[in-house]
Amino acid sequence: MKRFLTACLLPSLLASAPKLAAAQSATSVVTITRTNYHGWPDSLILSNGKVEAVIVSAVGRVMQFRFAGQHDGPFWENRALDGKAPNPGSKEWGNFGGDKTWPAPQADWPKITDRGWPPPPAFDSLPVSARVTGSTVELVSPVDPFYGIRTRRLVRVAQETPVMTIKTTYEKMQGNPVRVGVWIITQLKDPVAVFAPVPKNTSYAAGYNKQSDALPLGLKVEDRLLSLRRDPKNSTKIGNDAGTLLWVGEKEVVRIDSPRAADAEYPDQGSSAEIYTNPDPNTYVELELLGPLQAMKVGDNIEQTSTYTLMRRSQQESAAEARRILQD
Predict the structure, then answer these.
(1) pLDDT per residue over 281-317, tens digit each?
(2) Which of 3, 142, 148, 236 is most solvent-facing, going by the fewest CB within 10 Å?
(3) Exposed, middle or buried by CB within 10 Å (0-12, 13-18, 19+), for 153?
(4) Residue 6 belongs to some domain of the structure
């Protein structure tokens, strides 16, 4: 796949290409490439030569985060929906995969929208606009007709390290005041295990709170490290008060960080981190990090930044891998 500097791309998105080209070549090795990704034209790939972030604005998602040059990565993608457009009026959820944002708590959706499920349309089932500024891609959603909120996501990859950051902002544009939190959902492939640190001052006696009928497979807490596996038969979900989650695959590890704010109110029994596991046949898990609940009126903004680090495995045993990474 041919790569170009940002200013050589997307002329319809960039108004001052010559100036941008000079700044880009002088300060950064990050490149941005336009591509047709599994049937979605005008998708974008951010690369620093070590890792790549794949953005599909047609479905409003960061669809993949992978090592540079690879055709696959740890994020789960629903190949059955390749190239298809989301349908905001559908009663069935169009689960494309990747990384996205929903308004928390989910328990409030039936009160605010005309449906409890699927998720509110502008957050999940409408295209977003993509604008390139330097080495950053900005994704802006339409205003959700129920929440009156527009989402703005700034996606970056670091210049020299295998790190992606996404800053997610909710902008209250219209409608009645609402109490809401930024909720980031990252779908990843079936793991060897998922881990979460248990804070010293955790609010939960067991180190987690139960959010589903069944508990995850292999759930345990040892020396303040929570671990679990995907259950092929049941959907499961737990929450805790950490600011880090860790996905460990056969060859790769994804660490996601979004620090918890002190003395803030969080949704779902006080959860700032949640792990969902999906049963067969769609073999994925969700690593979810949440921001505090805040009251929003027209003109207000709230934001949350998530940092994603991609690593190759170096330990044979997954728990040893997790402890090594979380202690670094």
Answers:
(1) 999 999 999 999 999 999 999 999 999 999 999 999 9
(2) 3
(3) buried
(4) no
